[in-house]
Design goal:
alpha/beta, Rossmann fold, 6 strands, binds zinc ion, PRTase-like, Putative amidophosphoribosyltransferase, transferase
Length: 288
């Protein structure tokens, strides 16, 4: 039985009441510290934030900030929409590994045929490169919420596409729960938010599935996977996750992350969900 650390429910980055609150200058200052100098600095800061909010409110492409045509259905200009087109063919439906020919019918890759995977179905939007990579990094490291919304829209469309297909590696029916890949608390405190949780929250609204933000916990901090060679990534994650059987046993879980590269993180997290008794684990990532 996994002992998960007690955690407070995570804050909602996309809560309109919270994220749109723009405190008046000085509203958060301790009483007695208000001086003319801090007053001018706070007012300048507030006006800057107000300007950025107004600019963001205009219809702009979330990828390049160019103005959008009046009839745009997505917050993307035509050029960026082309560069962010989803991968529709030439990939393994179980793990998203991509071949040369993007037109080929999806088929299981050698690794998935030989070794299998600890998850069942898989959905992704596109390759982790170019503009898609810039969006992922802009959301994760710079907190660009518009880019997060865009990525969540890609995730929802990718999930619907995968769910509409048949065969191995394809989701089978709707999930009971969305579970984000957790960050270790110290890393969460440093970054300020968990990008996977925010994507899962928006995806849950899109596909009507409840979110279980504390069903999976990170038990220890690990060296960032991107800094390790492939063969060390799995051992780096041994014992890194535990899932709460009370939340996942017998349930169909959709594990959500922003990116999957070698798959070591998703694999370890999916194994923890399985150990806790999940009936099924599907995976959705924005980029692969
Ligand atoms: Zn654009
Ligand atoms: Zn595969």
């Amino acid at each position: 039985m996994a002992n998960l650390p007690a955690l407070a429910p995570p804050a909602n980055l996309f809560d309109p009441n919270a994220s749109d609150a723009l405190p008046m200058p000085g509203a958060t200052d301790a009483p007695g510290l208000w001086t003319a100098r801090t007053g001018v600095a706070c007012l300048a800061d507030w006006l800057g934030r107000l300007g950025r909010r107004l600019l963001a409110a205009c219809d702009r492409c979330q990828a390049c900030q160019g103005l959008l045509p009046a009839d745009a259905s997505l917050p993307l200009c035509p050029a960026c929409r082309d560069r962010l087109a989803p991968r529709l063919g030439g990939f393994c439906p179980r793990c998203g590994a991509m071949g040369e020919n993007a037109e080929a019918t999806p088929g299981l890759c050698l690794d998935c045929r030989r070794d299998g995977r600890p998850w069942d179905g898989f959905a992704f939007h596109g390759r982790y490169e170019g503009l898609l990579r810039e969006l992922v990094l802009g959301f994760k490291f710079h907190g660009r919420l518009g880019q997060g919304r865009l990525l969540a829209g890609f995730l929802a469309a990718a999930w619907r596409r995968a769910a509409a297909r048949d065969g191995p590696g394809c989701p089978d029916g709707a999930p009971d729960l969305l579970v984000p890949t957790p960050l270790y608390p110290r890393r969460l405190a440093w970054r300020g938010f968990n990008q996977s949780l925010e994507l899962a929250r928006l995806l849950g609204r899109e596909i009507g599935t409840p979110l279980a933000p504390l069903a999976l916990a990170r038990l220890r901090d690990t060296v960032p996977q991107s800094s390790l060679p492939g063969r060390e990534r799995r051992s780096n994650l041994t014992g890194a996750f535990a899932a709460d059987p009370a939340q996942v046993a017998g349930r169909r879980v959709l594990l959500v992350d922003d990116v999957m590269t070698t798959g070591a993180t998703v694999e370890t997290a999916a194994q923890a969900l399985r150990r806790a008794g999940a009936a099924r684990v599907d995976v959705a990532v924005a980029a692969r």
